[in-house]
Amino acid sequence: MLINRRTFLAATGLLTLTPAVASAAPARDVYHEALLRHTRWAQTQYDAAAGWYRRTDFGFAVVLGNAVLLTRGAYDAALAGVEQDVLRQHTLATIKHFAASNVLAGGGEWGKTLFWDTTFQSYFVLAARLLWSDLDAATRADVEAITRGQAEYTASLGTSDDPRSGGWTPRGLTGGYRGDTKLEEMGVYAQALAPGIAWHGDGPGWREAFGRWSRNEAGLPAADLATTAVVDGVPVSANTAANLHDTFIVENHGSFGPHYQEELWRTSGRNAVHFLLAGRPLPEVLTRQPNGELLWRTILATMSDAGEPLMPMVADREHLYGRDVLPLAFRSTVLRDPMAARAEAALASRLLAYQAHPPVHRLAKFSGEAKYEPEARAELAISYLLHELRPGAEPVPEEEFFARAAITIDHGADPGLLTHQSAAAWAGTVTKPGFTKLAWQPHHDDWLFKISGPAPSLLPSATVTGRNAVAYQGVRDGFDATACLLRFADGFAGTATLPTGTVVCALPRPGRVDVHNLAMAGMPGLTGSRTYTGASGRVTVRAREGFRVDELTFPATTARHVRMLGVTPHPTYGYSIFDFEVDAAQGHPTASSFDPGFEPEKATDGNPSTRWAVARSERGRTDSWLSVDLGTETTVRSVRLRWETAAAVAYRVETSLDGTEWTTVAEYPRPDLSTPGWLDVDGRAGFVARSDEPITVHGDTITLPAGVIEGHVRADLRKIAANPVPRTPDSVRASTADGFLTLFNLSDADVSGTVHLHGTRLYRGTQVTTDTGIAYTLSLPAATARVEAPWFTTQGLPPGVTAVVHDARRVTFRGGPARFTLTHRDGFSLRVVLRKGSRTVTVPGAKAFPFDDLALGRVTFPHSVLPPGMSDPAAAVDGSERTAWTPGRDGRMVVDLGAPHVIGSVRLKWTEGVPPPHTVTFSVDGRTYGAATTARYVAVSTHWRPGHASLRNLGLAPG
């Protein structure tokens, strides 16, 4: 008899181990309890015959978590599943064995190799130091030989590659960022040195090498050369490595991987805990990290409500709760970052519920890399120790976190990511080959829609051949939004994100969104079902447990042959079936192909553990089939297919009398719900489709029709769907979601014409009032998209009046007489009397968005590490009259315009007092500066002395 997983867990009592979400518990307490519970898994790594934890996948690294439990807090054997004295015996025996077997101590089993042995050496040495008084003299000597020997060996390499590590290399101090960052590799070199320095002081060249690798870990010459700051006695401008794109995004395995974006703080956490536990001062580079805050900005721009970064391009590292703790713990405790403290608190509040989900006790259960599990235990132990040794910052209030993190960033076509973090949602237009999508997380809920790796999300998954992107910023444009027009081999698609969290997509063909649907006790929303509501009704789809089973019925038909004919295979594995049952009949199976050991008869042999699978070479074939010959003509009414992971996305059931002529009797998927206009998902988010075709739900898949699709966060979808659709020229698509006018030109030609809109909103440009709304004059270049804010609304404005909105504070009306009320978006209203002729109205106190100042809101340098006496240069480009940049002695700042621009003029506005002697120079590459008309980087160099004025504003007008 087959029983599902939850039934099994209940029967065995494991479900009683499920904890309540510890939302108010301090992170340190949560980590201790998680380590106790995880010990049940750790004990599976114990090899009783050998007498120690196994070497495979560095399973012996569990000793660090054990050491924390044996030396800190109250030990709970009921949670751990092992008595404390037994755990101590296992741990000490393991430390003794692997200390002696390390290459650096004279053994031959492991060690010395920088990748990846030094990571586990760091864990191992730390465990030994926690249990130092329990170790015998020989084991202590071996541990000391490991720490000293690794530091000596790494320092002896200079900037050369480790010959033992093969292709895992930092490429000297040059580094690299395209395809695979060298940030992680340089971090490994630094962590190979940290235990030696912390526990044995400075050996020859140790500290110098540690600082060199640590400073260069996130080095970027164009930024570093803008500073005279010194870290650990060495100028930051001496850095040479280029390990990240110039938008401060890290790429690994050909994709944006936040897992690697966090590596700066993961390795720093491993290093810092050694210094803190040894009672030594932290090297300055661990607290003043060049460019670290710009890396952190990118992480905040992709943060979920669980306190972990989203993984829109990484297939196997989503929801790695145990691995994502340490970077946040380091920033919270060592860097005293209140934003990181809030993210860490959010992650800690979910950790125990996540851990209780099957497979129970695991900390990194959604990844295929076995070594992540002992790593997660070790890093949770380090996080606990960091909180003990250096208490964390006070978290920002939960409601402020995403408001403060809100930002739009266009990382460019090479990284392939255009992101928008808002208070209500996260969204990203992903254009990296293999990952194309409009990824959307309404309410930052990382367990609602699937967005990781190649998971489809709205856009066609085809390769993007052209990309035109705009990132709107509040400081420059008056609102945050993105707009993107994408070119494919067979057409165009458009995406937009709005400050409300709403997304808009112009789809050339139907799009798809997959929904997370599982039962995870204690995790918000994961109740074991999802409810979908639309104009046609409501349906609740229960979570599927185990492998998918399809039971299809159809009108009785006479057949001798019955087959499953594939239409859409599993994107990776094709088709594979455990059981293929045709009513109660028996028969002989055949198939289009099969893998050795997975022959067709395995699907009809009655054994639930055997299966048919298509040949490996045929996995991409759509029309693979599995057929059963019943031997004689039989009346059939149903089929039952139990699929393996390689379950068909779509297929047909066909019958035949002769095995040649086939008739379709059933199709999968059959929609659970088909509804016109709108669809609500679990009361959390929903879609409005501006299309005559319906939205359908098939299990955990939503299919959206071609046309304009709007995604809303917890909105009245019925009311929104009832709003009239804008009328546009043929190649243009438009949306007025949330009052913003979003426009897409899905063609290779410039378009001029009129867009007919309902309502009384006025947008930048020219429009004429009509009986039902406005006729907006459109001019849209080929293959572009844009978003316009509803700066004004009117009440009582008659038809036939022309309104020209110049900017966010000024509008000219023509075509009176008329009396009406004009209301600004910020709420200011005034009565307007329009006579014959024209009248220009200027709203008092309103800003004239958008501004054409090229410097406004741009990234400035120095950034993360400032020289003595210098304040943040960003104050000169933040648009505020209340802030200013104080250069400090001979201070210099650089503003990065993001791309080369023709510079028309430069305006410097100083505070009261005497401005310092200064020069303005320009650069295309960030390295060579001088006089120029085209530049990406603009530098202001001063001979500032105390008493001189500060720079309130650096303005750059385009040429």
The helix content, as a percent range, equals 10-25%
Strand count:
48
Number of domains: 5
In round numbers, the mean pLDDT is: 94
How would you sum up the major sheet? Answer: 9 strands, antiparallel
N- to C-terminal distance:
77 Å
Q: How would you sum up the global shape?
A: flat
The CATH architecture term of the largest domain is Alpha/alpha barrel
Q: What is the highest CATH level, the class of the largest domain?
A: Mainly Alpha
Estimate what percentage of residues fall within beta strands: 25-35%
Question: Helical stretch count?
Answer: 19
Strand order of the largest sheet: 11-12-13-14-30-27-26-16-17
Q: Do you know the CATH topology of the largest domain?
A: Glycosyltransferase
Secondary structural class: alpha+beta
Q: C-alpha Rg, in Å?
A: 31 Å
Please describe the structure with a list of short key phrases separated by commas or semicolons.
alpha+beta; Glycosyltransferase; 5 domains; nine-stranded antiparallel beta sheet; seven-stranded antiparallel beta sheet; 19 helices; 23% helix; disordered N terminus; FA58C
List the helices and strands and how they pair.
Layout (H helix, E strand, L loop, with lengths): L4 H8 L14 H16 L3 E2 L4 E2 L8 H10 L5 H4 L3 H18 L15 H14 L6 H20 L26 H18 L5 H11 L4 H4 L5 E2 L2 E2 L15 E2 L2 E2 L1 H4 L1 H16 L13 H9 L20 H13 L4 H19 L15 H18 L8 H8 L1 E4 L6 E5 L3 E6 L6 E6 L23 E7 L1 H4 L3 E8 L2 E7 L5 E5 L3 E4 L14 E6 L2 E6 L6 E20 L7 E7 L5 E4 L20 E2 L11 E19 L6 E7 L6 E6 L4 E3 L2 E4 L3 E6 L4 E4 L2 E4 L2 E7 L3 H5 L10 E4 L5 E5 L5 E8 L2 E2 L2 E5 L3 E8 L4 E4 L3 E4 L6 E4 L4 E5 L3 E7 L4 E6 L3 E5 L16 E3 L30 E19 L7 E6 L10 E9 L8 E8 L1
Antiparallel strand pairs: 1-2, 3-4, 5-6, 7-8, 8-9, 9-10, 11-12, 12-13, 13-14, 14-30, 15-29, 16-17, 16-26, 18-22, 18-23, 19-21, 19-22, 20-22, 23-24, 25-28, 26-27, 27-30, 28-29, 31-32, 32-37, 33-36, 34-38, 35-36, 35-39, 38-41, 39-40, 40-43, 41-42, 44-45, 45-47, 45-48, 46-47
